Amino acid sequence: MSDLKGYSASQIFLHWLVAVLILYQLIFGEDMGGAWDAFEEGRSPDMTLWVWAHIVVGSAVLVFALWRLALRFSRGAPEAPADSALLLLAAKWGHRALYAAMLLAPITGLLAWFGGVATAAELHGWFKPVIIVLVPGHVVAALYHHFIVKDGLLLRMRRPLD
Prior knowledge:
The protein is an all-alpha fold and 162 residues long. It is 74% helix and 0% strand.
């Protein structure tokens, strides 16, 4: 049980940094598909700035997500609000799914690109629609707490409260 009121400045910074990096990947990551197709066909991929950016930004998501998890395990996190058992369960599994996606998407991408693992590439491709569902769900839940429940939950990710 945690008596923390909010997240640390580092946790908040990393949360928003990873959010921006994931949004970047969703918007600008399409060039990687063409590079992967060339790679699979035995041709030399066109290593554009966008392809390199996808690799670098994806790697950054992995590093920062691991850092976030390390902070979460070492510092802890504030208690979930006193919602219904169903909402608490949804929040718990929603966060777990987000962390899994933040870790597994870059890992499968790196295994595909640098290891030539076609199965990893196929799995990597499934993360985009998963993330497109998880992120808006996360945002809607935060806005629900802020505007409907009015429990201050969103403030925990805006500024340190401890």
